[in-house]
Amino acid sequence: MFSICRQTHPATGIEHAVSCCFFNNDETCLVTAGANIIKVFRLLPEGPSREVNAAGQPIPPKMKLECLATYTLWGNVMSLASVKSPSSGRDLLLVSFREAKLSVLQYDPQTNNLITLSMHYFEEEDMKNGWTTHPHIPWIRVDPEGRCAVMLLYGKKLAVLPFRKDVTSEEGDPLEAKPLADLKKNAPTIPVVRAPTLASYVIVLKDLDEKIDNILDIQFLHGYYEPTLLLLYEPVRTFAGRTAVRNDTCAMAGVSLNMSARVHPVIWATSGLPFDCLRAVPIQRPLGGCLIMAVNSLIYLNQSVPPYGVSLNSVATHTTNFPLRIQEGVCITLDGACVAPLGEGRLALSLKGGQLYVLTLLADSVRSVRSAHLDRAAASVLTTTMCVIEEDFLFLGSRLGNSLLLRVTERENRMLFSVDKPLEATVDLTIENEQEYANQTQQKDKDADPAAKKRRLDSLSDCIATNVIEISDKDELEVYGSDIRTSTQLTSYVFEVCDSLLNICPIGDVSMGEPQLLSEEYSRTAEMPAVELVACSGRGKNGALTVLQRSVRPQLITAFNLPGCIDMWTVMGEPAEASRDAHRDMEGSHAYMILTQEDSSMILQTGQEINEVDNSGFMTGAPTVFAGNLGNNKFMVQVTTTAIRLIKNGVQLQSFQLEWTAQYAATADPYVCVVSTCGRALVLALRELRTNQAMSARLAPTRQPVPHRPALVKAVPYRDLSGLFTSADLDSVQVKGEFTGKMKGKKNVKAEGFQPDTVYELNDEDELLYGGDQTPASMASIMLAEQSKNPGVPRRVSRWWKRHLAELKPTYWLFVVRNNGNLEIYSLPEMRLSFLVRDVCAGERILADSLESVPQPSQTEEDEMTVPPNTEVDKLKEMLVVGVGHKGSRVLLLMRCDGDTLMIYQAYKYPRGNLKLRFSRINVAFPFGYQSATVTSSEDSYEASILRENVRQMRYFGNVGGYNGVFVCGRTPHLLVLTARGELRAHPLCPEEAPVSTFAPFNNTNCPQGLLYFNAKSELRICALPTHLSYDAPWPVRKVPIRMSPHFVTYHMESKTYCLVASTAQSTQTYYKFNGEDKEQSQENKGDRFPYPMLERFSVCLFSPVSWEIIPNTNIELDEWEHVTCLKNVALSYEGTRSGLRGYIAIGTNYNYSEDITSRGRIIIYDIIDVVPEPGQPLTKNRFKELYAKEQKGPVTALTQVLGYLISAVGQKIYIWQLKDNDLVGVAFIDTQIYVHRMLAVKNLVLVADVYKSVSLLRYQAQHRTLSLVSRDLRTAQIYDMEFMVDNTNLGFLVSEAEGNFVIFMYQPQARESYGGQRLIRKCDYHLGQQVHAMFRINARSIPNSVHRRHVTMYTTLDGGVGYVLPLSEKMYRRLLMLQNVMNNYCCHLAGLNPRAFRTYKSARKPAGGGAARGVLDGDLVALYTGLPQADKHDIAKKIGTKVEEIMSDLFEIDRLTAHF
Q1: Number of C-alpha atoms within 13 angstroms, CB side, residue 73?
Q2: Nearest partner of 1444 among 1426, 1456, 1457, judged by Cα
């Protein structure tokens, strides 16, 4: 069985986050990593803010996160860190991968990609010391001064990676360097750049100290002359039950690293720390030292200062002898907590329940901590990683909920402070200011009140799912205001949510269901019904149901049958108000719709209804090539094949005939560009001659014509709002710092930085540096450098957010492609050539400016004639340039070519060249495949078919459902969306609607923010985007918060509802204990400082897919201590009153009391019945009816149905039951292995998965009523889930394992190695890198003239990914396997990781049956073929002896087979 595995929805969880200067040293970015994906975000202000904090300093405005880059690696990120590298202009990223690999990466502007500077591999056998299992994570830690980094290897050794002081070899002090502007003018001497890392070496931890073992944490300490590493370890282990005999087992050692001599003395050691230590947190200067976090206590340690420890609950007092003080009013545990420094002895703690605390360490004059203060600030998401960005923002990355960006503001009346005495409040404010400040804090408390912010959703009377924008998860952030003033003045913090990143992992269970809110014609297609996915994601208060749909299904408002229409436009009427933002280009409503026919145009007026008009000023006698708006939507312009017209309010202002036939036209307000069939272009500009008389406006050609030799192929104008297209010098932008030093007696500030006894004062009202005699102009840069090192420096010296708020003036450009293959960019209206790319259709990854290097030789007429026309350029069918994203700041260049390629390039800043930019190709996967051919109609005449050839397939829309982007028409219609979030999303239109011949946006009173398109039946469809989904996600998604942990979900066909099992956790003081013959309940009261255990309480409910709410009065609470282990929708034959199969909900449970009490469980069977709904609540028409609920002899761990019987795993046995008169009657049983947790049946075969003993295949023979073992896998393996693979008549068993592997087994009794059929044969295996916890099958889409029948097996992962495994024919498998082997060398190996090594089966034990079997294609790697440059595509096809078209059609067929949801 040959198959291909591909992940179609990327992992969404975030496990690592670090803030660093990724692109260049002026801008701090946030780099996040989760599973195998690294993303880079920058902070963008929502709008200008006038807020100041208590110290009168400006507070940055609320920020949004914009994703600037996404990198998919062939390996999962285990640890992430960044290193400052001032000389190379940007920071280095250190990333470690599974077992012991380390890569040093850096952004490279030349290729707009990550480059690997060095790779370190420590996985030799002698490193492992004979161990095969490696639970240790290869942590990376970086010295705060950036001198070296270390990585933990296998928990036993340390790899040390020293860094160079300065990468460039030019000696000299950086402060004495000339200003950059001078260097620009004369060509700079290029310095020799050496590798930033020196040779790495390994330290064995046992050599430092005999006792060092079981490392708990490693951290670098602040303020030491040499890099000093703190090791927290547990030499002899213990556990909670042994603390009476052995406690205080942890110890720490401080090791000084002298890297030149490679000697590592232990300079500081402490032992006898509590046994439950978790991690060490280095404290920044001036305090220094470190904070040891244990589960129940916090201990501050510093060299030569007595330790200070506090107990956080009453457990700490009797499990440790370490001297601890009781922290009053606090009862918390720190297991699973995250921590981030807020500066000056203050830390933000996020506990495992999502509570945010601020911990303040209060020190006396000799810098020994004398008390700690914990302040509960807010309740937020369950956090996995925390990171501080630019001192004012806290990023909470999460795997269990949406990641949040919080703004942190201090409330504190302290304005001046001296660098020497950082913790004293020095100066009080004056009286008026105090009054103002009090008002301001009250105001802030009001704002922070969550109830005032959130829109409550009280009544959904019409039972329609709400708009996705209105879902506000109440628990994203709840703020508590408690402002305890002690003798020392404490800073209290306000946390406010700025932005959240959607996350759907971990997906515990998934179910297919039918979408409810659909127009009629989608839902009832028998061949492929519409399906959507509902997944359980999140945990605890972040629990949610996630609704996923792969394709966009527009909501139909109305449809007309209009045959013979070739193209369509909508134009806006007169706008109501004149002053609008420049980038809001689609606010008005559409007044006219223009339809192109073979030899005429049809003009429709669109108001309350749509009707045809004759005297609209538009020309009707010729086919329209383009229609649009000019002059801020005041004027309309129409271009037909023969003439151009300017119209206002239905009156023609100007019309002039063309000397040639127009083929294509486009506008960039106020310019119109028309391209002829003979390769000429005309650019016209709108001139309003007298401003008070609107009727006097005229279109006039630009003074400079477009050069028409060599012949034009395509020309498109573009109005730029991104500020990228500029010829200004980038480096001359000086940082505006706001800083004045008030001196005591000294005249000038020396460049060494800060004087210890100076008091610095921040001033808010003046933007510029003033007081030139005291602060030289170069101070700003020195202070910025100093600010990062010295925490005592006032914050916000540079208002870094100001540059994002600057208003940019639009600039105008003309993009021209000529038949010699060059792309030229001219500036309008001067028509100056500013950018030139040779051979633009070759599909290279980077489009660089050829004017950078070679001055343009002026060619004579004769030379021009001899330039051969480029062959690739004939394939270019269409070009479009759009600005999308935040205020149009992302410039996309789209080119559609023959050969099914749509190339999308994005402009990015590049320091050299005329326009200071380059274009880099974005790799976009079109989910259902892409075909570039035009949609033809059989009855077209010759003229009509020529017109159809020129119909634009790529249409920009400014506002459809609140999104802007590009709609791609054609055989495979897609919606390309890029919002302010900054990620390009390609959503396919549902396959039933394809092909789409033409599209237009449509904003009308009856159809606000809608869309129009012609489908295959030449129907004009007026639609709107369904608002209950969010389209700014890899798949259109709706996340429904349920504020419980969801465990299982299944769809019930008959009632069209979902059955959901969820649980909530409450703390409990009771437990059961064994008293000899039975169990008895006992109550424990341990006081209010005892952290009581949490008890999960399970419940079953019905969920409506119409309103996406739990149906009222259907919630059934299960007994206390009863856990649901499985939920299945089973079809049972009902003997008794009725006969035949019917769907029931079957639940298996277990009572979890304690290890002394025997486990027992129940089987519960519910029928979902129809009842009369309650008045005003139409959804209450369904209820549970309990048919059977009885206790079994053991825990019920798995259920399914086989031939109408119920089959259940109870304890160590599997029973088959028959449902008779509301009772289960036993039919057959068999003994099994250790713990069966999954069962699947097909016909009379039952596949059984064991937690430890892999899979077995059973068969039930109905005539003998016997259940027997057919075959099983003899290895031991930890199974997560399994599903069948169906390929024509072959049946395979796809199994997912705990290590993130897939294995496909087959039953082949005739094969020799199967021992006569006793053993299942392992046919293929594949390493996915993510754990798969849920799988299901769906019939593959039918392909014309193919008889191959197969199922697609879909899977969901615990990292939020979704993908499929699809069986292939042998011919296609062989061809794509050769492609995969060649692609392995062609694709970019980010971080030096090899795709082939990543996809090899990974297992801790050496497999007995030989090595990896492979046999599954890596769909992610093979799919990269479509995005390669044309030359590489031909090259690869030649190497494997096939044609490019054959490979492309294979890949397209795979996409079409899996075009579901």
Answers
A1: 25
A2: 1426
